[in-house]
Structures are given as structure tokens and as C-alpha cells.
Design brief:
alpha+beta, Arc Repressor Mutant, subunit A, three-stranded antiparallel β-sheet, 3 strands
Length: about 110
């Protein structure tokens, strides 16, 4: 399964993978992460390239173009599966919150 080495994604990891739902290069990824996280997550170049290297080694993303020092990456099927599993985990967290605090609080 895709989560053997990447057990739980940090928010920057999640947003970088989510950004790569369409092919893009590093600067685009940094900008997109800011937009899709509503400015909450900012990924610097050092963090981004460390993540890209790790994700590429894990087979989660792949390099599809290397032109003019601009490397373009995209998700692999394994990367999409990893995002899907993480999405399910996050939904479970929200469901537990709702069940434990919101629904319980309404019945008191």
C-alpha cells in the first residue's frame, strides 16, 4: 500500500501533493500551495525540493519535463492513492469530532 513509508502526511506534504494533481514546476507548486491552503501554508524552496526529492524516490510523483532548469512534476497513480487514503483519514478525524463534540453537545 502507498502508506508504508509515508504513514501520515504533514500539511505541507498534503498540499504539495494536492497541487500536483496537475503538472507544475517548483515555483508554481509554492504559489498553488499558498492559494489552496488560503495562505495558511507557505512552502519554502528548501522544504519543497526536499519533499519533491523524497516523493520522487518513493514513486509518488514523477518528473515529466526538465527544460531551462525548470523541472515539471506530476502525481503518479501511487501518489493519487496516497492522497485518497489521506483524505479518508482526514474525513475520519472530522467524523470523530462531530460525533464526540457536536452531536454529544447537542444532546446535553
Amino acid at each position: 500500500m502507498a502508506r508504508e513509508k509515508l504513514q501520515t502526511l504533514s500539511e505541507p506534504m498534503y498540499y504539495v501533493l494536492l497541487a500536483l494533481a496537475e503538472p507544475m514546476h517548483g515555483y508554481e507548486i509554492m504559489q498553488t500551495v499558498g492559494v489552496i491552503s488560503n495562505g495558511r501554508i507557505k512552502v519554502g524552496a528548501g522544504t519543497l525540493y526536499a519533499l519533491l526529492s523524497r516523493f520522487e524516490k518513493e514513486g509518488v510523483i514523477q518528473l515529466i519535463s526538465d527544460e531551462n532548469r525548470r523541472k515539471t512534476y506530476t502525481l503518479t497513480d501511487k501518489g493519487r492513492q496516497l492522497l485518497d487514503v489521506e483524505y479518508g483519514r482526514l474525513k475520519d478525524l472530522i467524523a470523530a469530532y462531530i460525533k464526540r463534540l457536536l452531536i454529544k453537545g447537542e444532546s446535553s
